[in-house]
Amino acid sequence: LTQDDLKRIAAYKAVEYVRSGMVVGLGTGSTARHAVDRIAELLRRGELSGIVGVPTSTQTHEQALALGIPLSDLDSHPSLDLAIDGADEVDPHLNLVKGRGGSLLREKMVEGACKKFVVIVDESKLVKYLGGSGLAVPVEIVPFCWKFTADRLRQLFEDAGCTAKLRTFPGTENPFVTDNGNYIVDLYFQKDIGDLKAASDAILRLAGVVEHGMFLDMATTVIVAGKLGVEVLNK
Ligand code: DER
Question: Is the pTM of this model over 0.80?
């Protein structure tokens, strides 16, 4: 079983939660991609009908459009039945890090507006504490004086050995720009940042910050596909 097989297994399991007539948040990334494909397949086979998809990125919008999934948005559907999306990290309390694909703002808006948020991961995403994988916790910031904001973010977590790095397009010095025209600063921690709610509040208090990639107390179900099988974790 390759890692992509595990992603597909988790995604197909999540799509079992989709009922005909639902408004479904469509996630972004290599795992969520399989869920979007599966929903389209079941619509084609007539096993699902009347589904409306609300995409969490232009990337997912294009994928779903090409597959013929009827699409809408939060303005028309302020409350969704279900959202399915991947994650970069999952801690034991089902708190998440998301956003390494750069879509965290629209993901958090859509997934914050749904009754049920089903997260799909392969087992490599499970961590003891957020930031624990040594990979980034993304923060979406306005481009104006981004150095100032990046350094304020770094100072917030000085005692956790934080470094802040502007995300650039791979192999270039050009800043990555999100679907919303903003930049992303990736925060790297050497130690556990402890109280996640306090960390979230401190980040969001900085005027230059738009949103961060810690999804606290948002997932209702996490489906973990591993070599030994699939585990369904409920809040
Ligand atoms: O960038 C994102 O928020 C993605 O959903 C990410 O959290 C998971 O992407 P992956 O399924 O490609 O690992």
Answer: yes
Task: Please tell me if the CB atom of residue 56 comes closer than 6 angstroms to any atom of ligand 1.
Answer: no
- The protein residue whose alpha carbon is closest to atom 2 in ligand 1 is 99
pLDDT digits (tens, 9 = 90+) for 194-210: 999 999 999 999 999 99
Q: Do 83 and 112 meet the contact criterion of CB atoms below 8 Å apart?
A: no
Tell me how far the alpha carbon of residue 213 lies from the centroid of ligand 1, in angstroms: 11
Nearest CA to ligand 1 atom 7: 87
How far from 169 is each of 70, 123, 173, 212, CA to CA, in Å? 31, 28, 7, 19
The span from the CA of 210 to the CA of 204, in Å, is: 7
Query: pLDDT tens digit string along 48-106?
Result: 999 999 999 999 999 999 999 999 999 999 999 999 999 999 999 999 999 999 999 99
CA distance 197 to 148: 23
Pocket-testing residue among 8, 56, 84, 98, ligand 1, by greatest number of atoms within 8 A of Cβ: 98
Written as six digits, the tokens of 1 are 């079983």
Prediction ipTM score: 0.98
Q: How far apart are CA 1 and CA 208, in angstroms?
A: 43
